[in-house]
Write a structure and sequence with these properties.
The complex is a heterodimer of chains A (234) and B (309).
Chain A (H helix, E strand, L loop, with lengths): L2 H15 L1 H18 L10 H35 L1 H6 L5 H35 L7 H28 L2 H26 L7 H21 L5 H6 L4
Helix pairs in contact in A: 1-5, 2-3, 2-5, 3-5, 3-6, 3-7, 5-6, 6-8
Chain B lengths: L1 E12 L2 E12 L3 E6 L5 H8 L7 E6 L8 H4 L2 E4 L11 H11 L5 H11 L15 H13 L5 E5 L7 H17 L3 E5 L3 H7 L2 E6 L2 E7 H5 L5 E7 L5 H10 L3 E7 L2 E6 L4 H10 L4 E6 L4 H15 L1
Parallel strand pairs in B: 3-7, 3-8, 5-6, 6-7
Antiparallel strand pairs in B: 1-2, 1-4, 8-9, 10-12, 10-13, 11-12
Chain lengths: 234, 309
């Protein structure tokens, strides 16, 4: 098996076996998904239109948040414990290590995001007592764009965790939380209540995710072993 | 053939010089002991050799390559650093298999069983690494480091945190790896006794510079000087014996400690020394050649280095 997938498999196993993180993340996803589903009953609009809005926005938010939590487990914990130094002595390049970890975060975070989408849809359908499915652009958004954003967020944060010292990472983490809240609030207010999730919006979102993912992929060459080792905690 | 070579290695962090002008050479099959106080620059040197740090000056080659730029050759090197590199939530077996697969080992499960048996932890195979004792984690760390049958093994303080029995096991394992599997071992340790027992060659590092780089046999033999020790029946005769010995030509560095007198002989036979003592009325209990311990050499070298500053 390609060593990138060996790392990915290990990270997935580690995340799943981390009971505390998994339980709190699953609870977070369930609570937000259940609380958001009744939105489909609000107003006189088409339920599919309202479901599209909720799924487009909330599944992405939950995916990004889950990605942020898991990335800390995968990158930061390993750096704090010093395990990463042993990993750097293996025949893998820094980019392969980074990629394996990003994929390891993407898989469980995507499964949880899919679960959130399924839960929102199921609860909404139950509440209106009628079969309900998101529109094709939103389905594409959930299946393709959300995992792309999850990878991009994990890639960017993981890149920063490898690059920075512990103190800088603490500051960064606070900045990221506020940054995510600010961006999502801004996006929500810009989109407005009548916002329609079209194919153009979905493709645009995918482009943004790919561009975000390309940043750490390109700049990975600037992370070398020395940079990681010299930013390990004493 | 040298498998580890360093030439004029220097490393500075923010203008602070950590190591300076380090040159060393380790031949295939050697067990090389790397000694030095905390902060002497051992870890920095090892990190440079492993390609984790780039030297400010000089060059380092392992198996003919600079490990910083050669991923393939890193696969022929085993490493046990201060941290065991184990994931606490994975079991001992899972940790071994994971690293084995990263190194591209086929049949990693079978190899893991083999190594767990070798380090005596077959029963702990399915215990999470984080739940194992420090000593057991160290043993798994060693098993991890040799999983892929490396040609060179870097061990940083392999016995730290181990009980005497486990230390003995680690020493036996190191000797076994070097003798039967002809693995070259680069061993950084504070355990001078351990280094003397297992290493064939040694370098002593002080304030970022190598002070001594020699074979253990040559160093402990006193670099050609004959160390001799005489045991007296009566400790009260030590002063008298010292006076006799000081008057003999070819006898130097006489030191008395209770009923034992140590000296360095050059150009005089041991039986002549014993004869002179007996003739002077000193009752001799025993007499024997005495090798320097690595601890004595280490302390002497450090004292000389500090006195020279």
């Amino acid at each position: 098996m390609n060593p990138v997938f060996v790392i990915m498999e290990k990270e997935v196993r580690q995340i799943v076996s981390s009971r505390q993180t998994m339980i709190s993340t699953i609870l977070f996803v369930i609570i937000f998904a259940m609380a958001s589903a009744p939105v489909t009953l609000v107003g006189e609009g088409n339920p599919v239109f309202l479901l599209d809005q909720v799924c487009f926005y909330l599944v992405l938010v939950l995916g990004i948040f889950t990605s942020y939590i898991f990335t800390g487990q995968v990158f930061l914990k390993e750096k704090q414990d010093g395990i990463v130094e042993t990993l750097l002595c293996t025949p893998l390049s820094v980019r392969e290590i980074w990629l394996g970890k990003v994929l390891g975060v993407t898989v469980p975070a995507t499964i949880l995001a899919y679960g959130a989408a399924a839960l929102i849809t199921a609860v909404a359908a139950t509440l209106i007592d009628s079969p309900l499915f998101p529109s094709p652009p939103v389905l594409f958004h959930i299946i393709v764009v959300v995992p792309a954003f999850i990878s991009a967020v994990s890639g960017l944060i993981g890149f920063a965790h490898l690059l920075l010292g512990m103190r800088d990472i603490q500051i960064l983490n606070i900045g990221i939380i506020f940054g995510i809240i600010f961006l999502l609030t801004l996006t929500r207010s810009l989109l407005g209540p009548g916002f329609d999730v079209t194919w153009a919006v979905v493709w645009g979102s995918l482009l943004v995710a790919v561009l975000l993912l390309a940043i750490p992929f390109q700049f990975n060459r600037y992370i070398n072993r020395e940079r990681i080792v010299t930013t390990l905690p004493e | 053939m040298a498998v580890i070579e360093a030439s004029g290695l220097s490393k500075s962090f923010d203008k602070k010089v950590v190591i300076s002008g380090i040159s060393l050479s380790v031949e295939r099959g050697e067990i090389f002991g790397f000694l030095g106080q905390n902060g002497a620059g051992k870890t920095t040197t090892i990190r440079i050799l492993l390609g984790l740090l780039a030297p400010t000056q000089g060059s380092a080659r392992v198996l003919g390559s600079d490990l910083m730029h050669d991923d393939r050759v890193r696969g022929r090197v085993g490493v046990l650093l201060a941290h065991n590199g184990l994931y606490p939530r994975l079991t001992a077996r899972e940790n071994l298999v994971y690293y084995g697969r990263l190194y591209g080992c086929r049949d990693a499960d079978r190899r893991a069983e083999e190594l767990l048996f070798l380090v005596g932890l077959t029963d702990a195979a399915d215990v999470a690494a984080g739940d194992l004792s420090t000593g057991m984690q160290r043993k798994i760390g060693i098993a991890r480091a040799i999983f892929h049958n490396p040609e060179i093994l870097f061990l940083d303080e392999p016995s730290s945190g181990l009980d005497p029995e486990a230390q003995h096991m680690v020493r036996a394992l190191i000797l076994n790896l070097a003798r039967e599997q002809t693995i070259t071992i680069f061993l950084s340790s504070h355990h001078l006794d351990e280094v003397q027992r297992v290493c064939t060659h040694v370098a002593i590092l002080h304030s970022g510079k190598i002070l001594v780089h020699d074979s253990v046999a040559h160093l402990t033999a006193g670099s050609g000087r004959t160390m001799y020790e005489v045991g007296l029946t009566d400790p009260g005769e030590g002063e008298k014996a010292s006076e006799i010995l000081t008057g003999l030509s070819g006898v130097g560095e006489v030191s008395v400690e209770l009923n034992r007198i140590a000296m360095v002989l050059s150009g005089v036979a041991p039986h002549e020394v014993v004869g002179a003592l007996v003739a002077g009325g000193v009752r001799v209990d025993e007499a024997r050649h005495r090798a320097h311990s690595l601890e004595e050499i280490y302390l002497t070298v450090l004292q000389e280095a500090e006195a020279a500053v």
